[in-house]
Amino acid sequence: MDRPLVIAVDGPSGSGKGELCRRLAASRGLHLLDSGAIYRVLAFAAREAGLALFDEDSLVQEAAAMALSFSAEADGVHVLLGGRDVSREIRTEEAGLNASKVAALPRVRQALLQRQRDFRREPGLVADGRDMGTVVFPDAQVKIFLDASAEVRAQRRCSQLAAAGRECRYEEILADIRARDERDRNRPVAPLRPAPGALVIDSSALGIEQVLEKAAAHVGALGF
Ligand code: C5P
User: ∠ CA(73), CA(75), CA(76), 5° rounding?
Assistant: First the structure.
């Protein structure tokens, strides 16, 4: 039997993946998996429990035990940990860096695999992450890798912060992005890279509409 459709979208933070995935899922009525949020929540839960972010045994236990759920609200998807809304707390720069530390641990990734695969349900899933097309859903029917230069991604993050009325220190953001890229691209397990057969889109000079157009054309060309 055919397995439910998966559109796997991978790429670094700030490439526009989140927005692309939300738009693709909404326009086609598909489920959405924000896999980064899972790593963010795990790091957040670990910090709250006083665990060190390199204590792999304890993190694996926490990964299995944590009561994580997503709830679709009018203003977007909220992330709940044990019923408590932690959506804001997990979106800080620090939470992103902490997520990339726990995400570098092989047994932690293994412990989170099934949780991610469980999102594959009819009528289909748009999966947003770093290893959706390579590891979590290697048999995804559609694979896309969205990239952009570190400078453009830092600029976009600054614009988001400014829009939220928050301060932006461009040089610090750029350094954080480079540190996270370095860790994500060079880790031994599930490094960030395009899956074989993925359509690679460089969004450095493209707006979201153009990215969406290219992605939708690719999905359509594959017959979905
Ligand atoms: O996508 P987001 O910025 O929320 O992800 C936070 C961190 O989680 C990433 O920097 C990456 O280290 C890790 N991650 C991962 N694999 C995924 C999704 C996120 O390693 N599929």
Answer: 65
Its pTM stands at 0.94
Distances 66 to 44, 73, 81, 86, 115 between C-alpha atoms, Å: 11, 22, 7, 13, 11
Residue 47 belongs to what domain range?
6-216
| Contacts of residue 62, Cβ cutoff 8 Å, sequence gap at least 6 | 42, 45, 46, 49, 51
Is residue 56 domain-resident?
yes
* Alpha carbon 55 to its chain's center: 23
Ligand 1 closest atom vs CA 183 = 12
Q: How many domains does the chain have?
A: 1
Question: pLDDT tens for residues 27-53?
Answer: 999 999 999 999 999 999 999 999 999
- CATH number of the domain that residue 29 is part of: 3.40.50.300
Smallest CA separation from ligand 1 atom 18, residue? 36
Q: Is 100 in the pocket of ligand 1 (CB under 6 A)?
A: yes
